[in-house]
Amino acid sequence: MIIRNLAIRHGRRALASPVSRPWLRLFSTQPTDMATAFAPAPATTSTGSTTVTQQSLDEAEALKEAKRIRELQFKNMPGEFRELRHLEKRTKSLGSEIVLDAYVPDESLKNPPDDASLEMLMASQAHMGHNTSSWNPANSRYIYGVRAGIHIISLESIASHLRRAARVVEEVAYRGGLILFVGTRRGHMPVVVRAAELAGACHLFEKWTPGTITNRDQILASAPLLMVNHQDDPLNGFVEHLQDRRPLVPDLVVCLNPLENYTLLYECGLASVPTIGIIDTDADPTCVTYQIPANDDSLRAVSLIAAVLGRAGQRGQKRRREAAAEGIVTWETPDEDQRFIDRKIYLDEKEKAEIEAARPQTRSGPAAEQATRGDFNIEQKFAEMFKNGNTGGPQGRRGPPRASRRR
Amino acid sequence: MGRNFRAARVYETVRDFLETDVVKRAAGQRARKPPAWFSAVQMIPPTELLTRPHPIQHSPPDTNARRPHNVYRPTKIVYPEDQMRYQFYKDHPWELARPKLLLEHDGKDGRHRDWSKGLRQPGMALSGESVVQRQLWLLENTPGMSVAEAYDAARHEFYKLRQQEDIARRIAVEEARYVGAYFGKGPIQVSMINEDKAYDEWRVWAYGHIQKAAALREQGSAQVVDMPDVLDVDVGDEGAAAAEAPVIPQ
């Protein structure tokens, strides 16, 4: 495009002074060499000789000129950028309308879909399995047929298993469960982080440290814990408890590449943690609880599946928060936290009673007698409370504090 | 050997443990609380695992076989277009050299195709696939048409369109040259340059070969006695200088 016409067309500089050289460069086809544009001025070499040759004079001139141009570019940059943005805005609507929407690689991250249709799964290459000779026959129920030397995974089975897994993620999130999204291959990081962000879950995109569940007292000893209430607000007064308490175990693990995370899935099996995994035609379907038969080698397919699961988690979190706002708590305080709370209440009441008893009594009359009698029977009162396997503590709709899902 | 079913049985494991919680019962207390995922997994059981149902038969099974083999193996997916594609690319092998776009947008390309209208379809490049689909449409929608006739009709339409493309390309080059564009070397030019290079290399090799052959001959005739001087011709200074300097014959 010729600069002269550009200026005339957009009118702003039609009759203005000629365009400055830096602006020409902005629109030229030659890319500005940013390294040299922003490179610091070369240090002048101090030579022993005092003779000034013509060559050195020319070099000095050239350096000065280069420096002048650089400084001019620096000065004009904000204005030029504004000009550029203005022109982009003006010309954006020009051009053909044939390609209004096209495939964008991060569409699953920017606009995660609620559900994946069969066409979307096919376009993401989710149906492409491995070479027929490297299959696991345990997966034969998910395979549609053989084409071009590979097994083709049935699109209907992908969709139905994905929807089932999405329901599990949603329900676990609704019940306040701790969900972990795992994807350790190259390119999985943004996918896993986005899915976890949507679902209010945790993510892992590097190697799983073996023993993070079975040996969690050692490995997660320094991981901070947080106590939250039914509306996700942090609670005070649990510092000592959180220091003593065992580290958390996830309630659901979603693994995007089970073939490379055998240790993680084995530990989940030992600890009775349900797992969801993308099972390709060469993977072992028994390593996870909920299989999603799909192509785990296509980043596009994995991204789509993780986005759908992330959205499901988001729906579950929303339902949980809405219920909490109405006073309905969809979960129960875990046993160890509840034990701490009950013990604390018991000890606090005991302490209060002791203080009351130690205070000199100056009151008299039936009211005073009743009060003192009540105080001295505090131990008996609590023994009765805890008698029939009742762990005490406030029951019912106004939820008690619970252990955190967050680090 | 042996499979690990722990993952598939997480619900049953935890349920059985909660029902028979020995520790708590001994203490006279209520059983432990179930984990947060328990009621969710109870409501949504995992799918059936490890069974091998009879696979989808994409071609009619062989009824003559007394004992069918590989009954549980997934079958090959076949389409009527496969033979047509094979025939087309066998007849037009250079069509395979054309670049092909493998990326799909939303998987709904098939909805925008109408093969009754011809070979050109929106969002699809003209290729052997267009010919095959058009051929299939003609076969199914024209009464009394055979496969060969449909193929001929479709490929002749294809030839017309390719010819139009070639003409358009040629005119575009002319127009571009007229307004100042220049292009790189054409295939013929590149071939000529390569040929010239190869020829020059050959010449150098050939001269060296001639020199070696001459040296061998001289060696072979070293025993022969020199002829008397009367046969030597006096060529003068110029001739002597020329005779001494090695000249590569042009």
UniProtKB/TrEMBL annotation, chain A:
Region (Disordered): 354-407
One cellular component term from this protein's GO annotations in UniProt: mitochondrial small ribosomal subunit
Record lineage: Eukaryota, Fungi, Dikarya, Ascomycota, Pezizomycotina
Region forming the signal peptide: none
Any Pfam family the entry gives: Ribosomal_S2
Domain of life according to the entry: Eukaryota
Alphabetical list of Gene3D superfamilies matching this protein: Glucose-6-phosphate isomerase like protein, domain 1
Similarity comment text for this entry: Belongs to the universal ribosomal protein uS2 family.
Presence of the UniProt keyword Translocase in the record: no
GO biological process terms, semicolon-separated: translation
PANTHER family: 30S RIBOSOMAL PROTEIN S2 PROKARYOTIC AND ORGANELLAR, SMALL RIBOSOMAL SUBUNIT PROTEIN US2M
Gene Ontology molecular function: any one: structural constituent of ribosome
Annotated protein name in UniProt: Ribosomal protein S2, flavodoxin-like domain-containing protein
Keywords tagged on the record: Ribonucleoprotein, Ribosomal protein
TrEMBL record, chain B:
The organism's place on the tree of life at top rank: Eukaryota
Family annotation (Pfam families): MRP-S25
Subcellular location: Mitochondrion
Gene Ontology molecular function terms on file: structural constituent of ribosome
Alphabetically ordered keywords of this record: Mitochondrion, Ribonucleoprotein, Ribosomal protein
GO cellular component, one term: mitochondrial small ribosomal subunit
Primary location recorded for the protein, binned into one broad class: mitochondrion
Record-stated family: Belongs to the mitochondrion-specific ribosomal protein mS23 family.
Quaternary structure (record): Component of the mitochondrial small ribosomal subunit.
Protein name: 37S ribosomal protein S25, mitochondrial
Upper lineage: Eukaryota, Fungi, Dikarya, Ascomycota, Pezizomycotina
